[in-house]
Amino acid sequence: MQIPVKRWYEAAEKRYSRKKYQKKEISKFTLRSYEKFLEELNQIFPEVRIELFKEDISKLLPALEGKYGSITGAPYFIAIIVEKEGDYCWEKAGYAGEAALLEATDLGLATCWTAGRYKEEKSKVDLELEPDERLAAVSPLGFSSENYLFSQNFISKLFPRHDRKSLDDLCEGGFDSDWPGWMKNALKIARIAPSRLNRQPWRFKVESDRIIVECKGTPTAYRRLECGIALLHLEIGAKDGGVNGKVEFGGEGIGSFKKEH
Ligand SMILES: Cc1cc2nc3c(=O)[nH]c(=O)nc-3n(C[C@H](O)[C@H](O)[C@H](O)COP(=O)(O)O)c2cc1C
Predict the structure, then answer these.
(1) Which atom of ligand 1 is nearest to the CA of 69?
(2) Closest Cα to atom 6, ligand 1: which residue?
(3) Separation of 16 CA from ligand 1 center, angstroms?
(4) What does the pLDDT look like over 6-50, one tens digit per residue?
(5) Which end of the chain, C or N, has fewer beta carbons within 10 A?
(6) Number of structural domains in the chain
(7) Total-model pTM
């Protein structure tokens, strides 16, 4: 799948987690366009599928043990589903899931990564999981009803991403302003990736033609997923910075973006 670099770069910059939703329906045109996109996205990794449900997310949320905060009102949601034993399935869930959230953001829809241990018996929506599948995360989809003026988003606009660690702290050996422009652009956008409780488990190791994502702490399933999100952001930023290349999962660290010569 060809990444729409400019659109997703802008989406990554403007995306914030939204928890309160209006009952408003998404237009048929937008839904069709999004469903078509998901069909394409679902081709990239056999280990991950992302499904759109035209159901109120509140029917599913009680089944997510360990989720936090309250998400209300969203009339649609997406489910990010992994093959439990699939290669790098959690990293790929993060990468593909974030692609789905950025595309939604670009279509003017609000989102919020939401994850917890799924207890099927407590859900009022049948996700039709196969025995070898597990629900990795969901996101509501719709129109935010949060009061813009008083919301965190307004503050975040005044103080862009004050809530993230500095690149000096995230890069091994500190940030070097002499790194090539594409690297600095990649790191800038990877830094603002979303993570559970905003814990930002990714650490970046910069080499001459690649950036490696390492995991701080035990690489649990969710930390690996979050590093997968950061890997997509790295790729978007690197390509926006003018280089070609691709993400590789595994190897040193959780994965890396490597520039092609
Ligand atoms: C894997 C994952 C799980 C998350 N789970 C929840 C959750 O259960 N409840 C919630 O309100 N937000 C959840 N979030 C959203 C984070 O709290 C949010 O991304 C982070 O605080 C950064 O804020 P931002 O998304 O507005 O940039 C989750 C994010 C990720 C990536």
Answers:
(1) 11
(2) 114
(3) 9
(4) 999 999 999 999 999 999 999 999 999 999 999 999 999 999 999
(5) C
(6) 2
(7) 0.96
Q: Residue 2: helix, strand or coil by DSSP?
A: coil
Residue 42 near residue 49, CB atoms below 8 Å:
yes
Say how many Å lie between the CA of residue 196 and the centre of ligand 1: 5
Locate all alpha helices (DSSP H) within the chain, ordered by sequence.
5-14, 28-41, 89-106, 152-158, 167-170, 181-191, 221-240
Mean pLDDT of 228-248: 98
Q: What is the pLDDT of residue 73?
A: 84
Would 158 be classed as within a structural domain?
no
Same domain, 170 and 134: no
Average pLDDT over residues 106-131: 97
Q: Taking CB atoms and a 6 Å cutoff, what residues make up the pocket around ligand 1?
A: 16-17, 19, 67-69, 112-116, 137, 194-198, 222, 225-226
Q: How confident is the model at residue 154 (pLDDT cuts 50, 70, 90)?
A: low
Q: Whose CA is nearest to atom 5 of ligand 1?
A: 114
**Atom 16 in ligand 1: residue holding the nearest Cα:** 196
DSSP secondary structure string for all residues of 14-71: H--B--BB-SPPPPHHHHHHHHHHHHHHTTT-TTEEEEEE-S-GGGTGGGEET--S--
Q: Do residues 9 and 99 both lie within one domain?
A: yes
Q: Ligand 1: which of 64, 135, 196, 233 to mutate, judged by most atoms within 8 Å of the beta carbon?
A: 196
Per-residue model confidence as pLDDT tens digits over 156-187: 556 567 789 999 999 999 999 999 999 999 99
How far, in Å, from the CA of 199 to the mean position of ligand 1? 9
Judge if 80 and 174 occupy the same domain. no
Containing structural domain, residue 41: 5-141
Same domain membership, residue 195 and residue 120: no
Tally Cβ neighbours within 10 Å of residue 22.
Answer: 14
